[in-house]
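Continuing the batch. This is chain 6 of the set; chains 1 through 5 are on the previous pages. Same settings as before, nothing changed between runs. Recording input and output for traceability.
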Amino acid sequence: MKERIMTTTERLRLTVIEDLTDGLINGTTAATKLNLSVRQVKRLKSKFRDKGHDGLIHGSRGRQGNRKININLENNIVKIINEKYSDFGPLLACEKLEELHGISLSDETIRAIMIRHNIWKLKKRKRSEYFSWRERRSSYGQLQQFDGSYHDWFEGRNPLLPEACLLASIDDATGKITYAKFGTNESTTAVFRFWWEYAELNGIPSEIYLDKFSTYKINHPAAVDNAELMTQFKRAMKSLGVNVIPANSAQAKGRVERLNETLQDRLVKEMRLAGVSTIETANIFLKETFIPFFNSRFAVVPRSGNNCHRALDIGTRSKLGGIFSKHYIRGINNDFTVQYNTKWYQLKEIQPTTIFRTEKVMIEERLDDTIKIKYKNHYLNFFLLPDKPLKIKSSPIVLTEHRSNWIPPANHPWRQFKYSQQTL
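Output for chain 6:
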């Protein structure tokens, strides 16, 4: 047994008890000096006579604690962590030890073991500025924080995809991951697919908080004084009545930034253990395993029980294909053709509304790569021309809901492709 060393308090007690034993002071004086009762002083005097100096040392000093971990168990834990979880944090390592190895200890105990064996190092945070958390919104669905995170999510297991992009939204009031999806980029098409699926799953949120990435905000200087300049994303959200808030700093949308840090640590390791190496299997793992676990583990109860998501009605649901498409304005040529993206589209002779030459139409480039042409809330009838149309000397002045009296020449697309093209 190690030599037991007296503390300062115990050395001071020794002096008083020695004086008491030698008869220099009485018990009352000793009790006053030590701030103890007379009965306690008598017990200390008795222990001193029986054991000497050791009688004044606390009896538990030098003994193994009743709650000390068995050395064999600790060695087994260290071996498991070194073999399988060497880069895991104490909390995640603790969860895996209980889930996969049946070792149930507190995360603080695991932390102490990892620090003791140089597996984990304490991190000292240095902040040059102080940032306080903005108060959470009161209701679920009131505000979604949204961001894309590029990272080596598969840790080299997929050589064809060294980096993927995880799009994720987190509810500000509850801290729930409301939707997450892996893809290859943060393009307008990818973001449109994300929010279409989000609306089908959860409904339409009131507000979205995101950064100033070019997909979401026009950063050209001219946009400062021209409020009409907006991205395809902002235009789509405006159609759904969603307020888009661009953050001026990463700290402003701190919850989703912190979520990205957590996912780049925890989700990466969870997918490693599950053997996930493709975007398809990763999205299944997110939906069926990780998001339910994360929300049950980390979500909080909002101040209000209201759900601010607006449910999709039949009319809005039917318009989502047009809302989540890229919109471009084009003019109708004199021969009632429309040019877009190096291709030529011929308007058919019969249309759902009256159309004049040189009118402006809306081109909708949809997520399934189909094209729609829209004029005043009407989708027009047209077909794709194989080549640039030849110049025609004359053409009808207007297209209406019935055939005109104008007779097209033999080389006109209406006659050439009348039966070979389906209505688009």
